[in-house]
Design goal:
single chain; alpha/beta; Arc Repressor Mutant, subunit A; 7-stranded parallel beta sheet; 10 helices; 39% helix
Length: 277
């Protein structure tokens, strides 16, 4: 199992149970306890959890599981998400009708749209995303109704009738993983069901995926690669995989993360190492 997906699953367990144990995680993930400890160390260094004897607990004990899950995802690869969102902003024009999923990357895009002067119609299944966009009076925000499943997401098809009334130009979506064979995949089955329906209503699909998601396959697919028009990723993504995607007719844009790395020397070293290999 890829490290990003493994750490993602650890955070999901922590979100659900508010305490995780090294021994149980090792058995669930089919890895050694030493590997789990290294993952917990990385997550602690990122400010996502606190190590305790035998396992870990949330960094903020006052957070609800749903809030903690979304906050955790929002902090993963934050620099890359900011750069990807900035690049995605260039694809949005005045009077567009767009769809944003409930991902933390699209939430970052929404934070940029909040400050634009564009008149937009936005459909989203993200509760926090909708609240953020509603602060801009020039943006009409529609929320797809359904079951609230996590800190920002709505799942299920209860509110799918909205798409018969609102025409969407393009959809911006993220995923737990993107793979040449399996396309875009995610973990929550009910949210996957809604995502699958949403993208069927839209002609242009823009995938916002940082380098930790390239080549990763999660539980359920919601969008084959053939339906993706544009992939926006960062400068650490494997060029060989991106070239294969381009040969399949997909436009690939790599957001420049180098400027945003200032003040993050450890991440800058990661980028420099990547560029010299």
């Amino acid at each position: 199992m890829h490290k990003p997906l493994r750490q993602d699953l650890i955070m999901q367990q922590l979100s659900a149970k508010h305490r995780v144990y090294v021994s149980k995680l090792a058995a669930q993930l089919n890895v050694s306890e030493a590997t789990v400890r290294k993952d917990l160390d990385v997550l602690e260094e990122s400010g996502l959890l606190k190590r305790v004897h035998g396992g870990a607990v949330p960094m903020n004990h006052n957070s609800t599981p749903r809030e903690m899950d979304f906050m955790a995802r929002a902090q993963f690869q934050q620099i890359e998400k900011e750069a990807i969102a900035q690049t995605a902003l260039d694809l949005i024009q005045d009077h567009d009708s767009i769809l944003l999923d409930a991902s933390s990357t699209c939430y970052q895009l929404a934070s940029l749209l909040r400050h634009t002067t564009f008149q937009l119609t936005v459909v989203t299944n993200g509760i926090r995303t909708a609240a953020l966009l509603s602060e801009n009076e020039k943006i009409r925000v529609f929320v797809v109704g359904g079951l609230v499943r996590s800190g920002n997401a709505i799942g299920g098809l209860i509110g799918s009738g909205l798409f018969a009334k609102v025409h969407i130009n393009k959809a911006f979506v993220s995923a737990r993983g993107i793979d040449i064979q399996h396309g875009l995949t995610d973990f929550n089955l009910e949210e996957v069901e809604l995502k699958n329906y949403m993208i069927e209503q839209v002609g242009q699909i823009v995938a916002l995926v940082d380098h930790t998601k390239i080549g990763v396959v999660s539980v359920a697919g919601f969008c084959p690669l053939s339906r993706v028009s544009i992939i926006i990723t960062d400068t650490l993504s494997p060029i060989e995989t991106l070239q294969i995607m381009q040969k399949k007719g997909i436009t690939v844009r790599q957001a420049d993360t180098k400027v945003l790395m200032e003040g993050y020397p450890e991440r800058q070293k990661e980028l420099d190492d990547k560029m010299t290999t």
